[in-house]
Amino acid sequence: MNSKVKTGSELEVQNSEISEAERICMSRRNFLLTGTTAIVMSSMPGIAGAVKLAAKDYPAVKIASLKSLKTDQPLDFSYPPNNPVSSFFLVKLGEQAGGGIGHQKDIVAFSNMCSHMGGPLNGSYKAAHKAIGPCPLHLTTFDLTRHGMVISGHATEALPQAKLEIIRGNIYATGVTGLIYGQHDNLA
């Protein structure tokens, strides 16, 4: 058996040759990973839709004055405008909430339609738990302090949340996070 021990300079030359060869051609593994990722990403219609949805310009619509809000008393409104299906509610929770505005970050707005099958959630606000539901169709309940996250039930997505801003003492809806049930585009 003829074994030759390589010196440090010989190993450096060999390593530099390997790294240059790797730079010139792609390994089979990297080729398959890159190609598969490109195919999967291009075949997912939700990716393109989500990017389009995020880039939309929503109109600012006045909902209520800050002074008129009472803790734990929801106020229904329609948003985006010219969409007869979309029904939202605004509520001052009295405790900090994800996406909340105001001094206590406790004013939030969510869709009145369950994200599972569009069941009506109107009138099902539970002040003691800062939740809405259960949905009459499949009993889903949503946590309003955590961006409308599902507490229990069949829904797999949080409630769509309206983005809010306070301008000169008035509350404005300025966008929606998430897709309103039954819509392919919130502004269509």
What can you see in these coordinates?
- By secondary structure, this protein is of the alpha+beta class.
- It has two domains: 8-43; 58-177, 3-layer Sandwich (Rieske Iron-sulfur Protein).
- Helices cover 22% and strands 24% of the residues.
- The strands form three sheets. The protein has a four-stranded antiparallel β-sheet with strand order 5-6-7-8, with no helix packed on it. Strands 1-10-9 form a three-stranded antiparallel β-sheet, with no helix packed on it. A three-stranded antiparallel β-sheet has the order 2-3-4, with no helix packed on it.
- The longest helix has 17 residues, at 8-24.
- The protein is elongated, with a radius of gyration of 26 Å.
- The mean pLDDT is 85.
Task: Characterize this entry briefly.
By secondary structure, the protein is an alpha+beta fold. Helices cover 22% and strands 24% of the residues.
CATH fold-level assignment of the largest domain: Rieske Iron-sulfur Protein
Q: What Rg do the Cα atoms give?
A: 26 Å
Give the helix tally.
Answer: 3
Low-confidence stretches: none
The overall strand count is: 10
Helix content: 10-25%
CATH superfamily caption of the largest domain:
Rieske [2Fe-2S] iron-sulphur domain
In the CATH classification, which architecture of the largest domain applies? 3-layer Sandwich
Q: If you average the pLDDT, what whole number results? A: 85
Instruction: Give the SSE order as H and E letters.
Output: HHHEEEEEEEEEE
Judged by helices, strands and strand pairing, the structural class is alpha+beta
β content, as a range? 15-25%
Distance between the termini: 77 Å
CATH class of the largest domain: Mainly Beta
Largest sheet: 4 strands, antiparallel
Shape: elongated
Strand order of the largest sheet: 5-6-7-8
Total domains, how many? 2
